[in-house]
From TrEMBL:
UniProt xrefs under InterPro entries: Amidohydro_3, Metal-dep_hydrolase_composite, Metal_Hydrolase, YtcJ-like
The Amidohydrolase domain, residue ranges: 51-536
Keyword Hydrolase listed: yes
The entry's keywords: Hydrolase
Keyword DNA-binding on entry: no
CDD domains: YtcJ_like
Protein name per the record: Amidohydrolase
Example of a GO MF term: hydrolase activity
EC number of the protein: 3.5.-.-
Any Pfam family matching the protein: Amidohydro_3
PANTHER family in the cross-refs: IMIDAZOLONEPROPIONASE (PTHR22642), PROTEIN LONG AFTER FAR-RED 3 (PTHR22642:SF2)
Length: 541
């Protein structure tokens, strides 16, 4: 079967020759050119050719988000209370109250939510258990900060979890306490696990399938044809999650390519993936096994990202890593020995230093297995770290849309000097460091055009600051688009068949409401996907 797409306005890279039509056969683009040159002179000679008129719309290569949490996003949308955008403690309390009444949540049932950001409150103070107790003392509650590295729980949740004045801080975490030593309800990093173990987890396979499909439908509606997702830590049964994905894939129900980022919290977690025969690059249908994912540190907003020097706005802390250096080294080494890529969450410069040191130490294994290690976030760097990224060709997987929330707090957190090599995406690209883009949804939204806007304008989604934040690090429109189209195939070793609109590439593309190279800068974030095609078949629109 052949399909001829005509009247296209393609998004092109690196001086590609212009065209307005392209021919697709068996899921691949086989030719580009003009309608006249590609259309059979006599349609009766080739009646199998279907013609699709794109009506002059812009056409982008299929978009790929290289790191998010699909189950977490879908659960927040379908099951939990969203606190995104609340601008005061009172608004946060009201939203939870409304959720309880709207959903008719019976007493004793857990209330889970996420998205609050105390830095957006008039009084920049974190909520406590007492603030949640004022909503309800009959519903145990866990409400995640927008970064997902810190939460607040109420007194009932603390009771059910058995967290008291005498409970010690776990390794890689902290229980905030008042002047008398009693828990305030704020739990940081691994301390959240103390509550998680008493919250009924998502573990039924059919429910997991519903969440996967709900998330996938939202992705393709925004022009995505691929996603890399970290889900194994979001469910109570990893086997059920894996089987859910495999069964959906076997039944041809996944509308886009899904790469599984396989999280390990400690060295023993690795065995699960070996036992299931998974290895980086193992491809099923549209499902692929990706890298071993490791959580190195926390977030900037919660001051749990591990810095080499104290936080500029709180000299009592430098943040902390979520595991010992020995465990981190063992997890990276065992992944490399078995031929797995790694993707380590590292925001602070201390964590990046430790991760890059391990990557350098195990270069023989990386080269032996032709691996492509990456660092997710790559936020607070230094000249020396950037040079090491460049020398080792480590992939920086960053989220331009983080600027939306971080630009107002970053300088006060890390100071002027460290800021010079923070969120410096242009510098990464200019140095020849391989880069890919992602959203970390549901931490931020995965709307790709909002992500592009923040990368290009260096402004938040309200258009601030007026002249852009550190505007010298702004990306060109082509550079920003490549982060979500041309570059992601690096991670899956598919650079010869994905990432651009060219013969030999898979026919994965999005039809857009406006051309991202041509609209006013402030309108980039308003672009929509009119239709999405995977292997030349419409999956949305």
């Amino acid at each position: 079967m052949k399909t001829l797409f005509i009247h296209a306005d393609p998004v092109l890279f690196d001086g590609q020759a212009s065209f307005d039509a392209f021919l697709v056969e068996n899921g691949f683009i086989v030719a580009t050119g003009t309608e006249l040159s590609l259309k059979p002179h006599d349609m009766t000679q080739d009646p199998a050719v279907t013609i699709v008129d794109l009506e002059g719309h812009a056409v982008s290569p299929g978009l790929v988000d290289c790191h998010l949490h699909l189950i977490g996003y879908a659960a927040m949308k379908e099951k939990n209370v969203s606190l995104k955008g609340v601008t005061s403690l009172e608004a946060m309390q009201q939203k939870v109250t409304d959720f309880i009444h709207l959903k008719k949540v019976v007493p004793g049932t857990w209330i889970n939510g996420s998205g609050w950001n105390h830095d957006a409150f008039p009084v920049r103070k974190m909520p406590t258990r007492h603030d949640l107790d004022a909503i309800s003392d009959q519903h145990p509650m866990k409400l995640l900060r927008m970064c997902y590295h810190i939460c607040v729980v109420n007194t009932e949740a603390l009771r059910l979890a058995g967290i008291t004045k005498d409970t010690p801080d776990p390794e890689g975490g902290r229980i905030d306490r008042d002047v008398d030593g009693h828990p305030t309800g704020i739990l940081r990093e691994t301390a959240m696990n103390l509550v998680d173990r008493v919250i009924p987890p998502i573990k039924e396979k059919e429910e997991i399938k519903e969440l996967i499909l709900a998330g996938c439908q939202d992705l393709v509606a925004m022009g995505f044809t691929g996603v890399h997702t970290d889900d194994f830590g979001m469910v109570g049964d990893r086997q059920a999650l894996l089987e859910a994905y495999l069964e959906l894939d076997t039944a041809n129900l996944l509308p886009l390519n899904v790469v599984l980022q396989m999280i390990t919290y400690e060295p023993s977690d690795f065995q699960f993936y070996l036992d299931n025969g998974l290895k980086t690059g193992k491809c099923f249908n549209r499902l692929m096994a990706g890298p071993i994912k490791i959580l190195g540190d926390g977030s900037l907003g919660s001051r749990t990202a591990a810095l080499k020097s104290p936080y500029s706005d709180d000299p009592t802390t430098s943040g902390f890593m979520l595991m010992s250096e020995e465990n981190l080294d063992q997890m990276i080494r065992q992944a490399f020995e078995h031929g797995f890529d790694t993707a380590v969450h590292a925001i602070g410069d201390l964590t990046m230093e430790k991760v890059l040191a391990a990557y350098e130490r195990y270069q023989p294994l990386i080269q032996q297995h032709h691996l492509m290690p990456s660092i997710i976030h790559s936020q607070i760097a230094s000249p020396a770290l950037l040079e090491q990224y460049q020398r080792l060709q480590v992939v920086a997987n960053f989220q331009p849309v983080f600027l939306h929330s971080d630009w107002q707090i970053a300088e006060e957190r890390v100071g002027t000097q460290r800021l010079k090599t923070s969120y410096c995406w242009k510098t990464y690209l200019q140095m020849g460091i391989p880069c890919v883009g992602s959203s970390d949804a549901p931490v931020e939204g995965f709307n790709p055009f909002e992500n592009l806007y923040t990368a290009i304008a260096r402004k938040d989604l309200s258009g601030h600051p007026k002249n852009g934040w550190i505007p010298e690090e702004a990306l060109s429109r082509e550079e920003a688009l490549k982060l979500f189209t041309l570059y992601p195939p690096l991670l899956t070793r598919e650079t010869t068949i994905k990432g651009q609109l060219a013969p030999g590439n898979r026919a994965d593309f999005a039809v857009l409401s406006a051309h991202p190279y041509q609209v006013e800068e402030e309108s980039i974030k308003e672009i929509k996907a009119v239709a999405t095609y995977k292997d030349g078949i419409k999956i949305y629109g």
